[in-house]
Design goal:
seven-stranded mixed β-sheet, Rossmann fold, Quinone Oxidoreductase, Chain A, domain 1, alpha/beta, 331 residues, 11 helices
């Protein structure tokens, strides 16, 4: 028996329980992991609240990012063997939850654990970097001379996008609400930071970019913030809207978009990784840059243990963290 996080009803962190779980035998294409660490994402919060587009079947496990050692394999597993160290790749599913001491995962969404990374780092790479890779590199084709706007930049996805954008040679303009996290965002590689509660966003973008505007927008906020940067779009801009932190619907100003031949792209990384060729392309890009040091996972200062794992979800809801929230399960 192992300890895992489960919930039997929808709600806030109070519905989460640490429970005993007897791992089933891995089925076709599946492996059983002994988990070393797991990482949180905002999608996990939405999942147990019942607000994610992937809905749970109760009772349900949760979580999509973990790393660990393969301890059993099912029929048809040909890419991994018992004893291999692996990390999981998040994808849209209600079947596989990995937050706990053991987890079942399909081999199609596993990657080898990079030797140069600790368990805390190895569990933190795929959501953080794949989420930014597709809009900034694969679809947006960001390059030297572009300005990339990254909103909610102190999140793990935001910090990952800053690193990804810098790999393309683009200049990164990041946003944060109060400015209290500006130093941390700058230390992560952003060239400029705009405090949205204090500054005129469009004016600052145009000032920073010398009137050029931003061509790739990686927006986790939407809503009213969208209105505050659309006067600063570059020609052929692409707005990737991947989050709704504002809490209000994003109303598209068609006139402003047409003036700049701009595109609004409702985006989810999950829609990209379900295509094997696109997944492999993204993985190769990220692994190459992890090896040469251009990408380095940024972890929140506080590392949680399995015993206080539920507190980690409460911590995420405070919004106080900078970087990835991780639960270390074993040494």
């Amino acid at each position: 028996m192992s300890k895992v996080i489960r919930f039997h009803e929808l709600g806030g962190p109070e519905v989460l329980k640490i429970e005993e779980w007897e791992a089933p035998a891995p089925q076709q294409g599946e492996v059983l992991l002994e988990v070393a660490a797991f990482a949180l994402n905002r999608a996990d919060i939405l999942f147990f609240q019942g607000l994610h587009y992937t809905l749970p079947t109760l009772p349900s496990r949760l979580g999509s990012e973990a790393c660990g050692t393969v301890v059993a394999i099912g029929e048809g597993v040909d890419r991994f063997a018992v004893g291999d160290r692996v990390s999981t790749i998040p994808f849209a599913n209600a079947r596989y939850g990995v937050h706990g001491e053991q987890a079942i995962m399909h081999q199609d969404f596993l990657a080898s654990w990079p030797d140069e990374l600790s368990s805390v780092e190895a569990t933190s790479i795929w959501m953080q970097y794949l989420t930014g890779y597709y809009p900034i590199v694969d679809i947006g084709n960001s390059q030297d001379g572009d300005f990339v706007l990254v909103t909610a930049a102190s999140s793990s996805a935001g910090l990952g996008a800053i690193e990804i954008a810098r790999c393309t040679g683009a200049s990164v303009i990041a946003t944060t609400r109060s400015g209290a996290k500006s130093d941390a965002i700058l230390s992560a590689g952003a060239h400029h930071v705009i405090a949205t509660e204090k500054e005129n966003v469009a004016e600052r973008i145009m000032e920073i970019s010398g009137g050029k505007g931003v061509r790739v927008i990686y927006d986790a906020v939407g809503g009213s913030l969208y209105d505050r940067y659309t006067d600063a779009l570059a020609e052929d801009a692409i707005v990737f809207l991947y989050g709704l932190l504002d809490g209000e619907s994003t109303k598209v100003d068609v006139v402003k978009m047409v003036r700049k031949n701009a595109t609004l792209y409702p985006y989810s990384m999950f829609n990209e990784v379900r295509h094997p060729d696109r997944l492999q392309r993204g993985m190769a890009y990220i692994l190459d840059r992890l090896k040469d040091g251009r990408l380095k996972p940024r972890i929140n200062d506080r590392i949680f243990t399995m015993d206080d794992a539920i507190e980690s979800y409460r911590h995420m809801l405070t919004g106080e963290q900078v970087g990835k929230i991780v639960v270390r399960v074993s040494d």
